[in-house]
Structure formats: C-alpha cells, structure tokens
Amino acid sequence: MFERRLAQALESAILLSGGAAHAPLLRGFEQAVSTLLDADPALAALWERVRAGPEPGAVGSFVERMRRSETAWRAARPAVEIWLHHAQLVAMGSGEHTNALSDSAQVWGANVQAREIHGGIHLHGLPDAAPRGAPTPRQLPATSAHFVGRDADLSELDDNRAAHRPGAPQLIVVSGPPGVGKSTLVARWLGGIAQEFPDGQLFADLGGHGPEGLADPGDVLGRFLRSLGAASVPGGLAEKAALWRSLTSTVRLAILLDDAFTAAQVRPLLPGSASCLVVVTSRRRLTGLALEGAVSHQLGALDPDTAMELLSRGGGGARVADDRQAARNVVDLCARLPLAICLAAAHLAVRPKKPLATMAEHLSDGGTLFDTLTADGEGAVRAALDASYRSLPTEAAALYRVLGLLPATSLEGGLIAALAEPAGPRAARGVDALLEASLLEQLLEDDTYRFHDLVRAHARERADAESPPEDRELVLRRFVGWCLARADAADQLITPSHHVPRDPRQPTPDPAGFRTAREALAWLTRQLGSLMAAVRHCAAAGWHTECWQLVDAMHPVFTRLRPTEQRIEAHELGAAAARADGADWGLGRMLTSGGAAFRDAGRHQEAARWYQEALTLAVDSGDQRQRAQAYQGLGNARLRLGELPAARDLLERALALRAEIGYQRGVALSRVSLAEVAMAEQGHDQAVALLGQARRELLAVRDAHDAARALALLGFAHGQLGERRAAEEALWQALGEFEAVGSAPWRARTWEMLGQVAERHGATEEAAQRYERSRTLYEPLSVRDTDRLTERLAALRSG
Predict the structure, then answer these.
(1) What are the DSSP calls for 635-690, one per residue?
(2) Tell me, what's the pLDDT at 542?
(3) How much is the pTM?
(4) Which residues contact 594 (CB under 8 A, 6 or more apart)?
C-alpha cells in the first residue's frame, strides 16, 4: 500500500514540475533517497528515466527496485515518508488554491497556507522543514569490556535463530540462576547482530525480582509504542497489544525482555511480525511460552578456566597466574557466577597488593547475611556483595545505603547529588567508587545508573540494618522532594496556564532547569516509572500534601502521552490524599484533571461523577474558576454520552462564569464545546459563528493548538453546510498549524474531515486518498479510530 501511494505521488510530482530535473518536489525526493542512489548505479539510472518525464512503467520499476534494497530502503523510508506527506499536501491542495509568489520568494519542502506571498521567503531542505519521525530506538544495555567465554552459548543462540521456521515467531527464552550473566550474554549477542534489525532494538526490565514488583505489560507496551513514534497510546491492554502488533507487522526489531517472571507477562509483548526477534531472560524456564513457539536455552556457570580469565581481566591481573589455586578457590567461592566474580575482581583492582588467598578467606566468611537465600548460587553472590561493601570508602558505603532505599530503578546523576549528604564532588566520588566496585551500572544514557536487583536488595538490607529510621525517612523525603521539584519545573515550562506554585515539605537542592519544553517532556516520559513510585510511596506513607501536589505537577505527561492506567491510578491516589490533607483546592484540581483521565479513557459515566463532585466542592467553597472548570468538564462528558440539552446548559454556564471572572481562554474553549453540541444538533450555522469567534479569541491569547482545533472544526462545519471551498481552505490551513505544534491526533482527524468533505461532494477517489492518510496517522495512536477508518474506506469503495 505504501509503495503504491509513493508511486502515485511521484507521478503527480513529475506532472506538477513539468519534468524539470531541479523542481523542488523532485529535488526533495532525490535528497531523501540520496544514499540509495549512491549505493545502486542501476537505481540511479532508473531515477534519471523517472525524472525525465512520465515514461510508462518507469516509476513502478524504480519503486520496486528501492523496495528490494531491503536494509538500505528501511533506513531511507522515514525521510521518504516525510516527502510523501508533503507531496500529497501539494497535490491535493493544488486544485483548490493558488499561491502567488513574487520577487525572490522560494518554497522548498514546507507547505505555506496563504493567498499571496511577497518578499524573500526561503524555506529550503525538505527533511529539515518537515517534522521528523521518532529516532530509531537503540535501547540495549551496554555490555562489559571484560566479557569472556560463552562461545558455545553464543553459537547455540545462533543455531536456535537459524532453525526457526519461516512465518513462526522468533522467540528465545534464556534462563538461569541470578548473577549468571543472562542479560549480559543476550545484550552482547543482540548487539552483534544489530545490523539485521534496522528498525531498532527495544529493552524492558519486567521486574521479576525488582523492588517495584512485576512490570505491568500495559506500561511496557506504552513505552514501546512511544519508542516507535506513537504520539498517543490507547488505554486498555488489549487495545495497546493490538496497536503494537499492527505497528510491528512490517518491521524488523530485536527485543530484549529482561527478568520475566511468568509467561503471561510476556505474551502481550510479542510483536506482530516473524521478522522480529524476541529474547526473554528469566530465572524460570517459562515453559508456558512453548505454546508461542519459544525455544529454551539454559545458561550455566562459567567453566573454571573462563572464570579465572574473567577474574584476571577484571582486576586480579598477574595474581591469578601466580597463584592459580587461590584463584580457583576464589572463583569456586563465587560459584563461578560472573556477577560475583566481577565484584571480587573489582575489589582486587583497587588493592593491587592484596593476595588472592586473603580474598578467598573473606569470601568464605560471609556471615549470616541472606542465609535464607542460598539456592542457585545466590549465597555466593551475596558473600561477594558483603566483601565489596566492607571494602567501600565511608562516603561510598553511605551512598550505597541511600540508593538502596529508593523505589526508583533509574538513578539520574542529579537525583544522586540531591540525595547525597553533602552533595556535590563527594557524591561524584561515591558514584565512581560504586562503579569501580561493580556495585553500580552506568546505562547508555548520559549520567544515568542502575543496580542489579540482587545488589539493590543487598543495599536495602544494609540501609535497614545500619541507618536510623529518621535517616531513612529523610532520604525518601528528599527523593520525593526532588521528583516534585523537577516535575514542577517541567509543568511550568510545558503548560504554564496549568502551573501553580508548589512547596515540597523537604526542600532539595534546586534541580537543573530544562532548556526547552521538548526536553522537559522527554524527562517526564523517561521518569514516569520513578514519579509513579514516588506517588505510591507518598500515599502509603501518609505524605498527603506531596502526594496530590506531585500528581498535579505530572499534568503535562498525563495529558500529552495519556498513559491511561497510571493517569487514573495517580488521580485516585491524589484525590484520596487531598481529602486526607483537607486541601479542598487540591481536591478540586484532582477531580477535574482526574475526570479528564476517565473521559480520555472512554469511561464517560465515571468522568461525569468526578466532575459532579468537583462542581459540588467548588460551589461549597465559592471558587468560581473551579466551578466553571467543573461545568465545562461535566458538559463535555454529557456531550459524549449523547445528552445534548444537558451538555448545552452546562457549557453555557461555564461560558458565563468564565466571562464574569475574565478568563478569556476559558471562554473561547467553552465556545468550541458549544459549537460541537450545535453540530451534533445539526445547527451548523450556529457552530460556524461560535467557532469563528473562538478562533479569534484563542489567537489573541496565543493558544496555537486550540486555535487550530477551532479552525478545523470551523472547516468541518462549512463542509456540512455544503461550502466546499471554505471548508477545505480552513482544513488545509488547520492541518499546517497542527503540523507546526506537533499534534498527531488532530492531524489524523483533520485528514478525516477533508475526506468527509470530498465524499459529500462526490469526489470518491479523493476522499479515499484522504481517509487512507488519516488511517495511516491513526495507526500509532488509536486502534478504535484505525478500525473506524478502515470500515469507512471499505464502505466507500463498496458503495
């Protein structure tokens, strides 16, 4: 389907350009596929024929040869998709309006919606002028430079992959005891075959034995979908899994699912293509995955010689060759598990004169720590952990205990500095010491760290045993305060109209500011798991003020990414905390934003209940702005429930109150919602008037997104009145504005509206092309909308 649309767009571009070799559209395409043309002389020759004019069959042959260049084609495809989108805009818009350019004005790549352009406007370079897709994910953890041996295991993994039947899932389960190196082995193997998976590598820690409990498959799917470019993620697990299978049906991905606990955890995460490779690591064999075609590989301890080589490389050095018996004793006491050996080696590395015999003595004297956890070699790992911990400098040992208390799995350098006492250079020295001792692992992201789950458990036990309760509480207060301060800074930058001053009970060092809203949103997305852990901890500890304030500060990530389950859970906890805190104003915030969470999840009755409670609270407290907000939310809920008279009454009340208190943006948003009610009642003339006024008001307060939304709905209302020219002019302009603000859901909806306008006027083929574009944009956003567009297309073509 994509290749057919590309061929049609190329043919249209040739006709539009009159065959000129340097026409902007063709030059943009040539730039998008330049690497393909450079690598394939035959393809370059075909391109010369294509751009010379409409030779029968040339375009089809050219596109087919590109497609057969598999790896190179996949690498070039994102840039081609950007070009195709632009070409369709130009082709579809060319019959409806003319842009007159004078003087030295040149437009290459971007689509400018205007009647006339005068002067020297230059927008060169299509790929830079158009929105880029998500970067190819490369999420595999880094592997140690001291990786040794495992040749037989790597070879067996190759054999398992080669033996899989065409069309069958490529699913491998690598199991073994803790510390045996399952994750390291798989990351090394997948890294060696990364070129065979040009669409990227994904990684998820399923938390089989982590401090936060089992990772929810829906949360993991949400992260995966966003990594592949989904701007919005559906609510339920089934819907996410369906969208995941759709997005992965034509790609080649390598996926590492680390530390799985059950087969049920894994099943929803399986992609929709046999071209994808999934490797699961677990302490269990997960035999239930055999039903999905999984093959199993059991990983055992290192052989004695390899184990001693690892000890030597990691820090034992010449001592291993000088005293092989002592070295053998050390690796045997480590149960020949890579994690334990690396810990012992790191200890030796900073003590170049320490005899191996002394190290063996220390390992054999593990005390009673973790006496109940000795199965599968865990006791050996813990004995090594004890030895490493005892050898840490005082400040590093203190930091180790501090980090062990945290519920977060991702530890940023800024967080570590905020928690350390005192912060600054001493915190950095502590991190270096923990890295040197192999107790802390640095991730691929800059300045981000994590613990192995066994190391985290050990650090937590040391903290519980050695740190007074008041010190442990102080650490967690600082953690929550840091989360709140960072989220507050992000909220202020991304959604200033929502932001209010917040005051964490336990102040922390000022967090580094964000330079851009995009950077702030990326941080919120990356830290969503840690922020949710902080919310849960606050709720469990009875830190009510921090709990609801943190939920309130997370507003941007909830509204932009819409992680449905976390959003609803957070607001339920936040509302309970605000009630317990006696904070009516905070409760009102929780109820209105929580109502939006239920509304976006399609749970409109529950949304109405939350908004109704918010309304009662606002009336009792006399808060007019919150009262208007509750009316607005309740009106929108009634609209979606089909209760139009009630919706109109509530929205009119919201508008009147907002006008009374001078909230101009709110007035405009109420007009937009009233226009939607009018269109549902077939009052399109009234909708046109309301939307035109709302558009002007939103532009006046510089709300670009909602101004574009008003314009799109205005175009649709004109279309329902049979005014095609006015409808398409508004919709094309709105489409350009949504591209500028990066609103994928409304781009999809606007293309659908354009299709409805064309269909209403009998332009069936044009409508089909627009519906196809809408469906393509909906695919990473919403299964329900994608299915609806599929049904609309089928009905159009069958009729």
Answers:
(1) HHHHHHTT-HHHHHHHHHHHHHHHHHHT-HHHHHHHHHHHHHHHHHTT-HHHHHHH
(2) 96
(3) 0.59
(4) 568, 571, 572, 574, 575, 610
